[in-house]
């Protein structure tokens, strides 16, 4: 989809410079037993009633032009615990250039379902062999401001795996501990005022040094700034697990 398909009034902003709202995230952490391979299998096999906190990025969508896509929330099985596989996209891409994302992309006619899309895209972007992937299930669809209807596919990835970035799409591959991302103390809510209204979105910065918590004044170069649709889908995974 070309940029010309987007509404011309969409704002341009630096999310890292937007103010952080305080006192809005007094929620429990996910139980440690759920942040294991077996705990996740059990939860997906017997899910509880829950509702996603975020289903869409309002205002900027063109409902008549929604394209279907899928991403892989790949949970790497490591000796120290599960970690989430993420990528930093290259700066020249049309959508989400330079942002942190899950492997994934637009569905193709040959894809049998969103799981097939997510696995194919992960193989193309980071050379993840689907033989190492144990799909657990899918989260509800997420509608982005760039007119995509995205299905998040949650899976365990069992080592040994060898990953290699497709440099036409991915600048960097990295991992963040699942426990960090499932702790609401690490979920920021940022606000944007635009056209007389206020929009809120989640951000989950993670220090590149991995030596301590992220301070809101920490230099941009010192963190992986996870925000937008990626943070929104992680927030929905959190809501699924605490249900």
Summarize this structure as a short list of keywords or feature phrases:
243 residues, alpha+beta, Nucleoside Triphosphate Pyrophosphohydrolase, 8-stranded mixed beta sheet, 3-stranded antiparallel beta sheet, 4 helices, 30% strand, globular, disordered N terminus
Sum this structure up briefly:
This protein has 243 residues and is α+β, with helices and mostly antiparallel strands. Helices cover 17% and strands 30% of the residues.
- Which range does the strand content fall in? 25-35%
Largest beta sheet, briefly? 8 strands, mixed
CATH class wording? Alpha Beta
Quick one: how many beta strands?
A: 13
CATH architecture: Alpha-Beta Complex
How confident is the prediction overall: mean pLDDT?
Answer: 85
Give the terminus-to-terminus CA distance: 36 Å
Q: Give the C-alpha Rg.
A: 17 Å
Under CATH, the topology can be stated as: Nucleoside Triphosphate Pyrophosphohydrolase
Secondary-structure map:
Blueprint: E1 20-21, H1 37-45, E2 67-78, E3 81-89, E4 100-101, E5 104-106, H2 114-126, E6 133-138, E7 142-143, E8 148-157, E9 170-177, H3 178-181, E10 188-194, E11 197-203, E12 206-207, E13 223-224, H4 228-242
Parallel strand pairs: 2-8
Antiparallel strand pairs: 1-10, 2-3, 2-5, 3-4, 3-9, 6-8, 7-8, 10-11, 12-13
């Amino acid at each position: 989809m070309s940029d010309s398909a987007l509404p011309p009034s969409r704002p341009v902003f630096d999310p890292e410079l937007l103010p952080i709202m305080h006192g809005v995230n007094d929620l429990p952490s996910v139980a440690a037993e759920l942040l294991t391979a077996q705990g996740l299998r059990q939860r997906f096999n017997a899910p509880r009633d829950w509702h996603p906190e975020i289903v869409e990025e309002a205002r900027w969508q063109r409902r008549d032009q929604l394209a279907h896509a899928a991403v892989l929330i790949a949970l790497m099985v490591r000796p120290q615990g599960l970690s989430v596989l993420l990528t930093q996209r290259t700066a020249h891409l049309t959508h989400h250039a330079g942002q942190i994302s899950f492997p994934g992309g637009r569905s193709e006619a040959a894809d049998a379902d969103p799981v097939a899309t997510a696995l194919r895209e992960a193989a193309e972007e980071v050379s993840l062999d689907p033989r190492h992937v144990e799909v657990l299930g899918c989260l509800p669809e997420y509608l982005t401001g760039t007119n995509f209807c995205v299905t998040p596919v949650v899976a365990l990835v069992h080592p040994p795996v060898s990953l290699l970035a497709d440099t036409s799409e991915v600048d960097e591959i990295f991992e963040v501990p699942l426990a960090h991302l499932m702790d609401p103390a690490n979920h920021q809510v940022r606000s944007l005022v635009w056209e007389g209204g206020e929009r809120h979105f989640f951000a989950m910065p993670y220090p590149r040094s991995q030596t301590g918590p992220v301070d809101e004044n920490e230099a941009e170069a010192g963190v992986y700034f996870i925000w937008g649709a990626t943070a929104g889908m992680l927030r929905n995974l959190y809501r699924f697990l605490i249900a």
